[in-house]
Amino acid sequence: MLIQEYFKTRKVILEKALDKYLAPSDEYPQQLHEAMRYSVFSEGKRLRPILFFATYEMLIGRKNINRLERLLSTACALELVHTASLIHDDLPSVDNSRERRGQLSCHIKFGEATAILAGDALITKAIEILTEIKNKNISLNCIQILTKAMSTRGMIGGQAVDILSAKKKININTLRYIHLKKTGALLQAAMELACIIYGAEENTSITLGNFALNLGLAYQIVDDILDEVGSFDILGKEPGGDSRNNKATYPSLIGLEKSKKMAEKLLRDSYNLIKNMKNNDVLIEFVNMIKDRLP
3-class DSSP state for residue 104? Predict the structure, then answer.
């Protein structure tokens, strides 16, 4: 199966599931539900749930879209949490971004209050979805993994340090912490969730978790580079947002060339972690996709 076809087919079933889980736009309170749908169905790449699918299918040893039905609730929960984080990131008090994925940010279209509530509602909906998993041990484990990834030890913690570090001189270790938590934590959760549902050995779960963290850090470094030299068409928002918000980036700390080399090394490390695993073609494609974004 072509990789492009893999992404396309998995994205289709995910979109259908997301549509099922979210309340219709005309359900009261209409503006809140409309804002939630507007943000979720905004042409996102769906990288986290597709990474989750790909990891599970690698572990079971074959690609079979019919076997993904039991994974859809968890995949949707991942995407809802990610979307919530983007809504909150774009707020004037955080990154102050007017565009996201080539369209107006949620708070620009619906107002700040509704955007905050939409993000909160997507997070609570994600947890609600996970409670519906029939196997209650798996359900509890999935909730623990996702909430840890969101917590002060994960995505929220990284965002907090990012905000507090604005307009300050920080070192490379602090910036690494920010990116590992803001971007890496949810990618790591995608791998760990697949391992829990499959029943993988601990060593496999640790290896795949490290793969995700390297991948997430590389992805964020590439984003930092593109924020300096990229375009609206590539980013889906105006470049230069980090410098306007006085945020530290890898290029601002170590320069563009060293940033590129660091991203390339992280991608090599990611590849090396999974190169000997069977049925790893889709995971390798994730590495190549990020590599291809490097200018």
Answer: strand
How far apart are the C-alpha atoms of 29 and 13, rounded to whole Å? 27
List % helix, strand, coil for the chain (3-state, nearest 5).
Answer: 75, 0, 25
Residue 295 falls within a domain, yes or no? no
Domain containing residue 77: 3-283
Q: What is the pTM of this model?
A: 0.92
Q: What is the pLDDT of residues 175-211, one digit of tens each?
A: 999 999 999 999 999 999 999 999 999 999 999 999 9
CATH of the domain at 250: 1.10.600.10
Distance between CA atoms of 3 and 52, rounded to whole angstroms?
A: 15
The 8-class DSSP code of residue 100 comes to: E
Q: What is the pLDDT of residue 166?
A: 82
Burial string for 221-234 (b: 16+ CB within 10 Å, else e) reads bbbbbbbbebeeee
Phi, psi of 134 (to 5 degrees): -65, -45
Alpha-carbon dihedral sign for residues 191, 182, 143, 26: negative
Residue 290 lies in a domain: no
Is residue 291 domain-resident? no
